[in-house]
Specification:
- The radius of gyration is 24 Å and the shape is flat.
- By secondary structure, it is mainly alpha-helical.
- The chain has 13 helices and no strands.
- α1 crosses α13 and α2 (60-67) packs across α13.
- The protein has helices at residues 2-40, 60-67, 74-105, 111-121, 130-139, 147-158, 165-172, 176-184, 189-200, 202-218, 221-227, 236-243, 249-284.
């Protein structure tokens, strides 16, 4: 009995310590978000105030984002980013899952060299190639006007198949006997991929959709290099960066915080919408 009581007390103490540590880490993680939300409602202008909590609150910062388009056209930037992110997400998801399925199920020449090459290329950050990419896009005429959005979509989705490792690992866990049974019934590889493998792989599909949407939504480097001074094609990342420049920061700093809150909404909604499919897929996945 004494040993059981001592074991229970030790578990209780460990649980308290673990939960206390997790509470502290959660507070540290949530603190910057809480500060940004408070700043977005702050009525005082400027980038520096002497108090953590605003002295007065207002919705003018959010209103200004959508009404004052003389200097920074936030609605236009938001629309540009949304269009780019949606199309990039669709193409990237298709390219990545298709490449991962082929490398998982098919056997062909240069399969292993391709995977090794992709692994090596993945060690280098993508922005190392941005100058070369820009001049290639310039030669084909995709760096002016509305075609800039096409150029950004190509940049974000073109190399997505190099990140096939996680999806391939997930496809490897799905029994090949399912594919063989489907082929006996007369299914093609495309039908097996779309009607059998993908429904059984909802977690990795959801993960791929989320990462493919977030990447262009928050990217700054490629967008800045390709858009340059074309203000009509700016994305929200460039717009928020412009708000912190010396000539704008005094009047737009609180609007910057409001914009940061707004751009988090589509990502949060997408995650909440897809979360149930992720959970259902994990609980119903077929494994060997």
């Amino acid at each position: 009995m004494k040993k059981e009581k001592s074991a229970k007390s030790i578990r209780l103490r460990n649980n308290i310590l673990v939960h206390a540590l997790l509470t502290v880490l959660a507070a540290v993680w949530v603190f910057p978000i809480f500060w940004v939300v408070l700043t977005s409602f702050r009525a005082e202008k400027g980038s520096y105030v002497s108090t953590f909590f605003p002295k007065s609150y207002t919705l003018d910062n959010y209103i200004k984002l959508f009404t004052d388009t003389t200097v920074l056209n936030f609605p236009k930037m938001f629309g540009n980013t949304l269009i780019i992110a949606i199309f990039s997400c669709i193409l990237s998801t298709f390219f990545l899952l298709s490449a991962a399925y082929c490398l998982s199920r098919l056997r062909f020449k240069l399969r292993k060299p391709y995977m090794n090459m992709a692994m090596i290329l993945g060690l280098f950050p993508g922005f190392m190639s941005m100058i070369a990419v820009y001049f290639i896009l310039k030669v084909v005429g995709l760096t002016e006007g509305a075609l800039i959005r096409v150029a950004l979509i190509m940049c974000y989705s073109g190399g997505s198949a190099l990140s096939f490792q996680i999806a391939k690992g997930f496809f490897d866990t799905t029994p090949k006997s399912i594919d063989e049974a489907a082929m006996i019934d007369g299914c093609t590889r495309w039908q097996i991929f779309t009607k059998i493998t993908l429904p059984l792989s909802k977690p990795i599909v959801v993960y791929t959709v989320l990462t493919s949407f977030i990447a262009p939504w928050v990217d700054f480097i490629f967008a800045k290099v390709i858009c340059r001074a074309n203000a009509d094609q700016f994305t929200v990342a460039i717009g928020l960066w412009k708000m912190l420049e010396k000539e704008y920061i005094d009047n737009w700093y609180t609007c910057f915080a409001a914009g940061a809150v707004l751009i988090s909404i589509p990502i949060a909604l997408l995650f909440l919408k897809l979360q149930k499919y992720y959970v259902n897929g994990m609980s119903g996945a077929v494994k060997e």
